[in-house]
Amino acid sequence: MTKHSIHEQKAKPSYPRIHLMAAAACSAVMILALTLLPSPDATATKTVRLKTNIAPQEPLVELAEELVEEQLAEAPAEPIATYQWQDEKVRNGDTLSHIFKRVGLNSKDVYDVMSGDGDVALLKKIHPGQTMRFAIEEQQLVALEYVMSRTDSLLIEREGDHYSADMQIKELVPYTSYAEGTIDSSLFLAAQKAGLSEGMTMELANIFGWDVDFVLDIRQGDSFRVIYQEMHLDGEKVKDGEILAAQFTNQGETFTAIRYESADRGASYFTPEGDSMRKAFLRSPISFARISSHFNLSRKHPVLHTIRAHKGTDYAASRGTPIKATGDGKVIFAGVKGGYGKVVILQHGQKYRTLYAHMNNYAKGVRSGARVRQGQTIGYVGSTGLATGPHLHYEFYVNGAVRNPVTVKLPHAEPIPKQDKDAFLAIAQQMVGQLSTYAAAMESEKVANLGQ
User: Is there a contact between 424 and 267 (Cβ–Cβ < 8 Å)?
Assistant: First the structure.
């Protein structure tokens, strides 16, 4: 789909508004048709890119009007000042003096710049590969631009007899996209076919990670739908944005998550009814680890060769893999404990306790009395104590009684606050409707193609 760049090089010609509206309406029809056409190698997964903040049920005329208004509003502003730039790449071992010397400046120029106003101290943190742009007139530095990234730069300009620095930040433009997929072997392969990045796939797994174990629970035929944002600059994607809404169907059960952000609590994900997707505990303390031994109170011990209760779940992972606290809590023990080897025990309020054993080492700051947050790394996988190889042994206690960590019912985190409930429900209804509309459009297109 063609994006509307906000950085055009030439002025756009002026056309009558009615002509623009007609052209935009035709473009909108073509865009919707083209984005719904299947790609040759994507029978179970497709991606649609949409204009930001356009609901699928909006009339086509309204869509045309918004496209026209966007075009008219995106006329490029005249630059305040223009310079003839000379670009220099920062090399390994470079200092400001080295770079200034290459463009014909001296140490006094460096001193004058570093004595200027604003964030000139950022020039002390230059890195190889970055760009410095110099504007020199009559052997005098009039401007310097330190390009730190595609979006951030520091512009230093001469004002009379001194220099002044000002941060320049280019605003990224969000574009809303939709993708869906059906899992044949793994979530990552299905997401890749759907056009999702690895980071976006991890975020999708994190959202549903309290309800779905993506190692143990995934089955062929499971599916996902996701509405998300991509951040663009000058018509090109720069990075992933946020997941706005998503659905994941696992073994016939569908979970739906809606993103909601409030000024006092930040952003989080909730069910369409307003319950938090986040549970008080993560289902697994290691991301994407294989379960090597299940909870079994009459298991034969692999080292002692006697019947001995296996009061937890073992996760096989390579030595040094980070271990996460499954819930907010307090460290009540961090040390060596018999056959457990190096172990950490966390207390979560009055009712819950978790145990993590056979660690190779503890994370920095993890000691008795320390407070930890859910998802915080508390240690690393090892094979200390009675262990045949590197793995994590994880136990979960409720009111002092051991429970199966895989099947125990986990308590929910706090739901949407009462004062935000009405606003959230309106957003949730809209996003669930969009997920259904896009999915129905995809399905209709597949049926139409089968008939051809």
Answer: no
What is the spatial distance between Cα 248 and Cα 223, in angstroms, rounded to a whole number?
Answer: 6
CA distance 342 to 254: 39
DSSP H or E segment with residue 335: strand 329-336
- When the pLDDT of each residue in the chain is averaged and rounded to a whole number, the result is 81
What distance in Å separates the CA atoms of residue 323 and residue 320, rounded to the nearest whole number? Answer: 9
The whole-angstrom separation of Cα 42 and Cα 40 is 6
Tell me the pairing of strands 162-169 and 236-250. Answer: unpaired
For 142-184, how does the pLDDT look when each residue is reduced to its tens digit (9 = 90+)?
999 999 998 999 999 999 889 999 999 999 999 999 999 999 9
134-173 burial code (b ≥16 CB/10 A, e <16) = bbbeeeebbbbbbbbeeeebbbbbbeeeebebeeeeeebb
Spans of all domains in the chain = 86-169, 290-403
- Please state which CATH class domain 86-169 belongs to: alpha beta
Look up the CATH architecture of domain 290-403: Distorted Sandwich (2.70)
Residue in 320, 302, 299 with CA at minimum distance from that of residue 311: 299
User: Which tokens in the block code for residue 226?
Assistant: 């996701």
Q: How many residues does the chain have?
A: 452
Nearest to 395 by CA among 336, 315, 279, 330: 315
Rounding to the nearest 10 degrees, give the CA dihedral for residues 145, 146, 149, 153: -50
Helices then strands (H, E): number in the chain?
7, 21
Residue 388: what residue type? Answer: T
Compute the average pLDDT of residues 219-242.
93
| Helix axes 17-36 and 60-73, enclosed angle (nearest 10) | 110
Residues 289-321 pLDDT 10s: 788 778 666 555 455 555 556 788 999 999 999
